[in-house]
Recover the amino acids of this structure.
């Protein structure tokens, strides 16, 4: 007998529909899986065999052939255990013909006792199946039901074990679709648990730079001696950013789900990500890759912050690989057997010392590096990468009187965030109807349209451009930062003082002149 069971698998961040065809025929006892299965799929034979027996079903001692269609796409992972098991039960008549298999899809990994284990990518799977005609129901492990149920257009049923699923399909057990109140997930303040800027003593120039970075979506580089507070400042940037929208939250959740990093039982991630990989990380772990393409750190940081501490210590090929995603906000990972596209909509925050010993320019501790050593150290960050970082900010040693000051003298993240949100609202009105979301994303045509300078500001920018030998990209970055500074000040036209402040955040341009 032949049974055809609908299922779904994940490629990149997107699901694709599968049909599991199970034929149980005469012949010597055998169990074959075809359709380009990888090792984990081929091992399904033993998991399914044991799960069926331990759940009280009869495993047929006949020739079983399972075809995973379409057969030209490699199938990976254990999520096809459940549809294979249901196919065998349907082909051998152990599930009633009245069971609604035609309008149902199944995904899940089986334990040997017949219970279901959680899988990766449940949100991507339910999102894809909800758009497929003829599929009304999705059965998957209970731990994945909450995230899958946030998608509208498909009923999601949580499954504990094979025996319970059979009862549900035959109508002997009143199972209700999983319900998730998506709106309720956004009722609590997203920034309530984030570190507060009021905890940072001194460093007023760096705090101002973080405010500008948050208001305009700009990339930021913090430069200073050890212990100055660079990491502390970077970790407070997510608390200054606007709340995630529902669309952004779903994309973040999908990325973490596909990566296997979504907390089990969680439905939706509502806080902006903050990723801080170690400087020994490989290019594939940062950008994404592997035999089976998976999201890297730049995708895990989408709609949030990617913090690269000790920036010059990262491998040169890793840093150079960041250049294209910083411009295009998307990364395509190509392999011989296909490719996958991942979002890379992140804000980059880098931190570095000014020299190998870390104390060049420090007022208390002398630097022991030679000019050649310092120049070589700075050269680890290429000019093209620096051009893509809008703000270069010095973070000096914190003075004792700032550390010893009583509490209450520093602005909180909430106060700064109010100004950031006001600036973002001005940008939203200005950029309404355009794909550009914030100042840092503006194209050359949008710069000419929205970044008009008065005569004094134009003269100043021309002098700075010539004296610092700026590239065209560096010129545009200064304009974008100046536009954000003007937005924070509530000004429609960019003035000379906005240009002057924006130029102050090009520290390394001046150093390398």
């Amino acid at each position: 007998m032949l049974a055809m069971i609908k299922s779904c698998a994940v490629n990149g961040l997107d699901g694709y529909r599968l049909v599991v065809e199970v034929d149980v025929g005469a012949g010597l006892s055998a169990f074959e899986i075809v359709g380009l299965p990888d090792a984990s799929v081929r091992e399904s034979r033993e998991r399914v065999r044991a799960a069926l027996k331990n759940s009280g079903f009869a495993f047929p001692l006949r020739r079983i052939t399972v075809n995973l269609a379409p057969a030209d796409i490699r199938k990976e992972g254990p999520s096809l255990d459940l549809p294979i098991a249901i196919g065998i039960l349907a082909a051998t008549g152990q599930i009633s013909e009245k069971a609604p298999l035609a309008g149902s899809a199944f995904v899940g990994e089986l334990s040997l006792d017949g219970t279901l284990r959680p899988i990766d990518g449940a949100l991507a799977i339910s999102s894809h199946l909800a758009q497929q005609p003829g599929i009304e129901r999705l059965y998957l492990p209970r731990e994945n039901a909450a995230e899958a149920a946030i998608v509208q257009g498909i009923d999601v049923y949580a499954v504990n074990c094979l025996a319970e699923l059979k009862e549900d399909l035959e109508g002997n057990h009143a199972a209700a679709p999983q319900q998730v109140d998506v709106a309720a997930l956004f009722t609590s303040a997203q920034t309530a648990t984030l570190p507060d800027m009021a905890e940072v003593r001194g460093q007023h120039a760096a705090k101002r730079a973080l405010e500008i970075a948050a208001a305009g979506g700009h990339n930021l580089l913090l430069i200073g001696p050890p212990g100055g507070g660079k990491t502390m400042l970077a970790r407070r940037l997510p608390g200054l950013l606007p709340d995630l929208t529902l669309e952004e939250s779903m994309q973040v959740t999908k990325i973490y789900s596909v990566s296997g990093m979504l907390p089990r039982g969680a439905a939706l991630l509502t806080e902006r990500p903050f990723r801080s990989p170690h400087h020994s990380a490989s290019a594939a772990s940062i950008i994404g890759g592997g035999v089976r393409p998976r999201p890297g750190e730049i995708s895990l940081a989408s709609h949030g912050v990617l913090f690269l501490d000790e920036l010059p210590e990262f491998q040169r090929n890793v840093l150079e690989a960041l250049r294209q995603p910083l411009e295009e906000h998307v990364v395509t990972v190509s392999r011989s057997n296909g490719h996958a596209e991942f979002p890379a909509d992140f804000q980059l925050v880098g931190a570095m010392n000014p020299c190998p010993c870390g104390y060049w320019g420090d007022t208390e501790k002398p630097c022991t590096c030679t000019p050649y050593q310092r120049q070589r150290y700075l050269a680890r960050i290429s000019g093209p990468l620096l051009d893509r970082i809008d703000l270069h900010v010095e973070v000096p040693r914190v003075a004792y009187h700032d550390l010893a000051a009583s509490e209450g003298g520093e602005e909180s993240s909430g106060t700064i965030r109010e100004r950031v949100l006001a600036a973002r609202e001005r940008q939203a009105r200005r950029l309404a109807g355009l794909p550009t979301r914030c100042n840092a994303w503006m194209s050359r045509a949008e710069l000419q349209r929205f970044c008009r300078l008065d005569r004094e500001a134009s003269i100043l920018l021309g002098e700075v451009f010539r004296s610092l030998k700026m590239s065209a990209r560096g010129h545009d970055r200064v304009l974008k930062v100046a536009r954000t500074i003007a937005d924070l000040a509530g000004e429609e036209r960019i003035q000379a003082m906005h240009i002057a402040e924006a130029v102050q955040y090009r520290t390394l341009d001046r150093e390398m002149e």
Remarks:
- Residues 50 and 326 are 49 Å apart (CA to CA).
